[in-house]
Amino acid sequence: MPRFSIIVPSHGVVGRLSLALDSVLAQSYGDFELIPVCDAPGSPAADVATGHAGRDSRVAPVNSPPSAGLSGARNTGLRAATGSYVLFLDGDDTLAPGALAALDARLTETGDVDVLYFEHERAPWWEGEPTNPAAPLLAKTPTGAFSPAQAPQLTGVQLPAWSAAYRRAFLTDHQLTFPDTQFTDLGWGGLVTVAAERIAVLRSVVVRHLLRRQGSRLNLPGEHHHQLLDQVELVLGSAQGLAPERSQALFEQLFAVVLKTASRPERLPSGHRAFFRRAGRLYRTHRTANYRVPGGSLGVQHRLLASGAYTAFKALRGANRSASGAAERVPRPRMLRTRLRYARDLRRPLDPNLAVYCAYWGRGYACSPAAIHAKASQLAPHIRSVFLVEPDAVDAVPKGVEHAVIGSRKYWEVLARAKYLVNNANFAEDVVKRRGSVHVQTQHGTPLKKMGVDQSTYPVVAAATGSFAKLLGRVDRWDYNISSNRHSTQMWERAFPGSYEALEYGYPRNDVYYTATADEVARVRRELGVPEGKTAVLYAPTHRDYQTGFDTGLDLEAFCAAAGDDVVVLLRAHYFYDQGRAKSSGRIIDVTGHRSSEDVCLAADALVTDYSSIMFDYANLDRPIVVYADDWEVYRETRGVYFDLMEAPPGPVARTPEELAQVFRDGSYAGAESSALRAEFRSRFSEFDDGLAAERVVRRVFLGEPPETVPPVVPLAERVPAPAATLVRS
Fold it and tell me: I need a labelling partner for 412 at 20 to 30 A (CA). Which of 150, 250, 400, 588 fits?
């Protein structure tokens, strides 16, 4: 029998699940079993848990359907547990180093207690210092093991379920399980403390809890708040016969939670009066004769609840509420006249048939927003679509596409009125997220490098990013976030924590890799100036945060000379730069200024890149990819990466110019080993890209079709990529 069973529910937090599991497996104390609770076999969380189980026999995953909720997942883990003590760890939290050793040492000191409460650290996602809210409460308790009557303030109601270790035999003897409803921690904590006879505390941090960017799901508006009273009634019903000092502490802490909800009517879309009246009945039923009402404003709230005076309570709440308010009141365009017009337009009704698009901060008609725009014109022609562009990009907007110049009067008007807003970056900070509007974040790549809040520990990148709090404020506007593979889904969840829904539909911009014809490939090559019969190698290096300006990082003329007479290079610098070279010359064709990176990829017979996300998009074409990694170690340390590209590349890896030229000279860039690496890479990262991504988005978001009716993802083996020029020639 292991000393500890550690139960880790994983629904909705798969992006950080590996960190949670690793924090347990890295403990110096090893007598434990680790029980990840996953949605179902084959789910993203199950894949993570299975991978850990394959490396460590102490990991024993179990499954619980999402419909069972958090309580069902924890109860499933409890049934599978065999340890002497049970701990719970949320899937996006971690155990502090040395935590299990400290728990074991404390339990050795105290003997077998029913519950061992401990401190936890609450860490913000963005800026700010961690807090330890349990420390003041636990500091007031006896030093050894003690009876709950000796510390009546320690009711369990104020502590989450993962802030204690529970003797499994105690839980079994009392048949304690998590109540099958919302606010399950409150019910569990109350039931446990009522049943416990011998408890102790550990005054050190065991769990590091990561605060969700959007706050607790329980604080969101919804009918689930009525279930809070179910938990209160359950706990108070089980507390009959407790000593007066214990029952008073329990009563007071439970109704502190109730009054907090009652004073926030926005949490209850309907039935606020019914909530208040039921709470009042519970208050009067379970209040002990000697209960002392608190003083001050809180005491007034207690008295109003006890008397059922809803109207007076509502008036008190209104007087105390802050006027710091709704986002609709903070439009901040620079010019006064524009600001006034924008504020006026924000008061007008949303236009249900208006969609606004933007790509790369207005650099042009491009990427996934352009692909969704084109598909919407086919499937939802009733929707007026406006593309936002900078003044110098107006001439590049295709004929027939309505546009607005960023900063213009039309720009602010359509942003204020549009129901649908689609972007591959973020709209300006001043843009207000209106109730009823739908923001779609398409992203513009698969993350190899660290993104969002994950950049905060990399000084060079963090300095360029600016305020992470402001960044996450922009994330709060997202309703949907598009993903092309499960890796991206998980990393976006970590990098951009928010309440948005992930749409695993594929990237719309990549649709063309499955829909383009041989004639279109030939046309693009002619437009770019690729000589007939030549092998076009696309060279697309990424941006270096630790460098100023663009540097090819490679002598391209020398590469062409060494690689073979039939090789020409298509140079595409990162979109941060206006151009890669002053002009094209000889066998080097600068395509940095070409509007569409998708066209450039279609024209290329092979790709050479370093760490650019273009490799993930290009992999859809199933054409050769070579990684030129001359500074991988420096890039990894200064920028941060999500996985080791050298261990899982999409093709051969060259570290020097000579190695790069050699793989083209001897043909190994397109050989069997290269194909095998690419196939493995595609199975992981081309998961949802199949040519139908834009259609899925339009049907789900613009047409409101249910998820089950959108076109399913075509299996990878059944997809037919656009033909390469070499196939066209043959």
Answer: 400
The three-class DSSP label of residue 580 is coil
For range 203-227, the mean pLDDT: 83
| pLDDT reported for residue 288 | 82
> What confidence score (pLDDT) does residue 295 get?
77
Instruction: Quote the DSSP letter at residue 400.
Output: T
Listing from the earlier edge strand, what are the strands of the sheet with 4-9? 62-63, 32-38, 4-9, 85-88, 164-167, 115-123, 199-210, 94-95
pLDDT the model gives residue 328? 38
Residues whose CB is less than 8 angstroms from the CB of residue 164 and which lie 6 or more positions away in sequence, other chains included: 87, 115, 116, 117, 118, 156, 192
Question: Residue 127 corresponds to which tokens in the numbers above?
Answer: 């800026």
Question: Which residues, in sequence order, are bridge partners of residue 355?
Answer: 385, 420
Whether residue 573 is predicted with pLDDT greater than 60 in this model: the reply is yes
Q: Are strands 164-167 and 85-88 parallel, antiparallel or unpaired?
A: antiparallel
Encode pLDDT of 229-284 as tens digits. Answer: 999 999 999 998 888 889 999 999 999 999 988 888 888 888 888 999 999 999 99
Which is it for strands 625-628 and 606-609: parallel, antiparallel or unpaired? parallel
**Beta strand pairing status for 384-389 and 351-358?**
parallel
Reduce the secondary structure of 487-516 to three states and give it as a string.
HHHHHHHHHCCCCCEEECCCCHHHHHHHHC
pLDDT in tens, 679-708: 999 999 999 999 999 999 999 999 999 999
The CA distances from residue 387 to 355, 419, 591, 593, 679, in Å, are: 9, 14, 23, 19, 37
- Cβ of 656: how many Cβ atoms within 10 Å? 11
What is the spatial distance between Cα 258 and Cα 304, in angstroms, rounded to a whole number? 13
Task: For residues 195 and 150, give the distance between their C-alpha atoms in angstroms, rounded to a whole number.
Answer: 15
Of 74, 122, 71, 77, which Cα lies nearest the Cα of 96?
122
Helix axes 69-80, 184-195, angle to 10 degrees: 40
Dig out the tokens for 592 from the structure. 């940095």
Query: Could you read off the pLDDT of 407-446 as tens digits, one per residue?
Result: 898 999 999 999 999 999 999 888 999 999 999 999 999 9
In this structure, which amino acid lies at residue 251?
F
Query: Which amino acid would we find at residue 225?
Result: H
Name which of 94, 314, 326, 92 is nearest 216 in CA terms: 92
**pLDDT band at 489; cut points 50, 70, 90:** very high
641 secondary structure, DSSP code: B
Note the pLDDT tens digit of each residue in 517-536.
999 999 999 999 999 989 99
Report the alpha-carbon distance of residue 696 to residue 710 in Å, rounded. Answer: 6
At residue 582 the predicted structure's pLDDT band, cuts being 50, 70 and 90, is very low
Cβ(695)–Cβ(689) under 8 Å? Answer: no
Q: Which percentage of the chain shows pLDDT scores above 70?
A: 92
Reported as half-sphere exposure (CB side, CA atoms, 13 A), residue 453 has a value of: 27
Q: Tell me if the pTM is above 0.70.
A: no
Query: What is the number of other CB atoms lying within 10 angstroms of the CB of residue 294?
Result: 13
Alpha-carbon distance of 130 to 124, in angstroms, equals: 7
Indicate the pairing of strand 384-389 with strand 403-405: parallel
Q: What's the whole-number average pLDDT of the chain?
A: 89
Beta-bridge partner residues of 423 = 358, 441
Q: How many residues belong to the chain?
A: 730
Which residues in 695-727 are b (16+ Cβ under 10 Å) and which e?
Answer: bbbbbbbbeeeeeeebeebbebeebebbbbbee
CA angle 422, 455, 646 (to 5 degrees): 100
The pair phi, psi for residue 69, each rounded to 5°, is: 70, -170
Average pLDDT over residues 297-308: 85
Kindly provide the residue ranges of all beta strands, DSSP E only, lying in 20-93, ordered along the sequence: 32-38, 62-63, 85-88
Q: Which residues contact 696 (CB under 8 A, 6 or more apart)?
A: 503, 505, 506, 710, 711
8 A C-beta contact, residue 651 and residue 669: yes
Q: Which SS3 state, helix, strand or coil, does residue 710 take?
A: coil
Please check whether residue 722 is in contact with residue 533, taking contact to mean a CB–CB distance below 8 angstroms: no
